[in-house]
Amino acid sequence: MNSNLSEQSMRAPTPGKSHFFIALAAALLTGSILAGCEPTSTAKQASSNGASESTQASKVAPKDDPGTTTLRVVASQTLPTNPQRVVTLAPNVTEVIFALGAGERIVAVTRYDDYPAKVKKLPKIGGIIDVDLEAVLAQKPDLVLGTSAGSDGNLVAKLEKSKIPYLFVQMNTLEETYGGIQKFGDTLGLGEKAAEIRADMQSKIDAIAESAKSADQPKPRVMLVYGHDPLVAAGPGSFGHEMLELAGGANVLADSPNPYPVLDIEKILSLNPERIIDATIAPDGPDKVDAPSPTGAFWAKYSTLSAVKNNQVHYFDDPVLHRPAPRLVEGLEIMHKAIRGDAQNSADALKDD
Amino acid sequence: MSATRLLSTIAIALVAALGCALVGLGWGSSDLGAGQIIRGLLTNSLDPMQQTILLNARVPRVLFAAVVGAALASSGAVFQTVLRNPLADPYILGVSGGAALGGTLFLTLGSAALGGFVFGVPAAAFVGALGALALIFGVERWTPAGRTSNYVLLLTGVVFNAFASAIIMFLKSIVSAQKAQELLFYLMGSLAVEGMALSTLLGCAAAVTLCILGLIWFARDLNAISLGDDDAATLGVDVARVRWWTVLISSIAVAVAVAFSGLIGFVGLVVPHGVRLLVGPDHRVLIPTCAIAGAGFLILSDLIARSVFGLFSSTLPVGVITALIGAPLFVFFLWRSMRPT
């Protein structure tokens, strides 16, 4: 229960469109099946629709961040100056707070939080979408932190009513991730530490991007796969796409109109990626990395795929690949190695190269 | 019904279904079109990737759609006769829901303990389907006979589906989101064959074929039962025994289909009604024709699901399509059956 794809990071790498259709069809079918068909309709609304966001109890207009982009922030009118009891509503927010050195201030997390390991023992306030307000209140937090994907109108209204200060920052892109870290840092009185983390991330990422750019090989055509059943991959507009391109790959789905398209195997065969980065989290969670990878058997059937033929399917059962937080640098390193062909687990592949 | 008429009907249906299969093979989410395939096969010039698309992506998917469609449609026809209810369909009666519940329970709770995934899920689905049927038969037995008793059965099915969904949703909320996502797709019924071994697919096909042959074997008895239990008994048909066997066999077919494809609704409703309009109520023709037509129907629905929605760069679970087609037709049949005759 520790890991997961659809709800773990705030921009929920889930097939948006298909969720919509599933919800539609479910309503047609029994109306009762898919009460939990959550994330994207609200998430989409919150993240992509500025208008709806400002009508939500957003007391703070989108603010200019010191960076280049405008951060989408939804926050209560008054934020505490030195919050000590913080509830986080997304695993990546938890990671950010720990990176800031304020981990001991977190009193409750979602059921998807798994890093650092000790957060698993903290009280749970539900999922990212199905936040249990009562569980939040029971922790007597002086601040609730989340990402905009979690800030559905109801939750904000409820927190408002309960007079709990809250701060939601959209962190869908790398730039927004930097901005979010800074914003959380400022709010916790750790602005300097945040700037430090940010500068450190930036320099490491720039180094990776630089080396990816300077490599003289042509960019390999890469596909980043998030799940097998259904087959979901990263399209433009997704965080994964951004990472993939930074790491020196060319996304085979660069033309997709959908950030998280649901594909069938035929589509993948016809796109014929040269490298596949398979970030499917094993059903039992990422802890069991030693278990035989389900990926090998899955891809072995499609031996005409360049990636399979050349032993360039890279399996990374780790949420760092889809969690915008300081550890994304590790994710980027993993991707860079996979894309540039010197990943540890593709030692065999190197012989082919 | 003469033997020639029987054979010609089935021949026509087969040709139509093969046509559907060819259409299903000819299009998909990639650019590889029917013209290219035919030209490529004739001149033997398909490149390896195109061959893989055809053999590893489209052929298994079309075959699987055919198997599931045949199972659902022929079971639907039999349920309609045996329960004497024109609205009976494995999905609406709750048989599919029961199978899905069994399969899901096994997927979430049992697989860790038992490990035997391939046979465990269908077995659990079968138990779930039988459980739902037992409930339906129980309700049927204890409901006072009358004009409304038909609808009691349907309501029981609907309520049971809701109940099964509730438990499935509960399970969804305690598993990882990765698994929850899989369950979500499972609930909508998808014919995605990625990751399914060819032997599993052929096993399903064999099981469903046997079931359909079994149902055809009871076709004469089913004809008698459609006249009414008393008339059938006068004709020397052991009504209880025939009901038991045909329902059991249909449930096996449904359980096999649902175990691997998830909940695909309305195929067992739409296809038998359509076929009955064309070939009449004789089960010797009805059952095989339903099986063939169901195969064709689901192949086409799946083609829509996997190719048309390429506009959104997404594929849909086929259950979405069958529900979109089937739900309005269900309302029509309901309206027709309520009309005073």
How would you portray this structure in words?
The complex is a heterodimer of chains A (353) and B (341). Chain A contains 14 helices and 13 strands. In chain A, strands 8, 9, 10, 11, 12 and 13 form a 6-stranded mixed sheet that branches. A 5-stranded mixed sheet of chain A has the order 3-7-6-4-5, sandwiched between helices. With 353 residues, chain A is α/β, with parallel strands linked by helices. Chain A has 2 domains: 31-201, Nitrogenase molybdenum iron protein domain (Rossmann fold, 3-Layer(aba) Sandwich); 216-352, Rossmann fold (3-Layer(aba) Sandwich). The longest helix of chain A has 24 residues, at 191-214. Chain A is elongated, with a radius of gyration of 20 Å. Helices cover 79% and strands 0% of the residues of chain B. Chain B is built from 14 helices and no strands. Chain B has helices at residues 3-26, 34-43, 48-82, 95-114, 117-142, 149-174, 177-188, 198-217, 219-227, 229-234, 239-261, 267-279, 283-307, 318-338. In chain B, helix 4 crosses helix 11. Chain A: This is Fe/B12 periplasmic-binding domain-containing protein. Chain A: Residues 40-68 are annotated as: Disordered. Chain A: Residues 85-343 form the Fe/B12 periplasmic-binding domain.
Topology:
The complex is a heterodimer of chains A (353) and B (341).
Chain A lengths: L15 H14 L9 H10 L1 H6 L7 E2 L5 E2 L1 E3 L10 E3 L2 H9 L6 E3 L24 H6 L4 E4 L6 H9 L4 E4 L4 H14 L3 H24 L6 E8 L2 E3 L5 H8 L3 E2 L10 E2 L1 H7 L3 E4 L15 H7 L5 H4 L3 E3 L12 H13 L6 H6 L1
Parallel strand pairs in A: 4-5, 4-6, 6-7, 8-10, 8-12, 12-13
Antiparallel strand pairs in A: 1-2, 3-7, 8-9, 9-11
Helix pairs in contact in A: 1-2, 7-8, 8-13
Chain B lengths: L2 H24 L7 H10 L4 H35 L12 H20 L2 H26 L6 H26 L2 H12 L9 H20 L1 H9 L1 H6 L4 H23 L5 H13 L3 H25 L10 H21 L3
Helix pairs in contact in B: 1-13, 3-8, 3-11, 3-12, 3-13, 4-5, 4-6, 4-11, 5-6, 5-11, 6-7, 8-11, 8-13, 12-13, 13-14
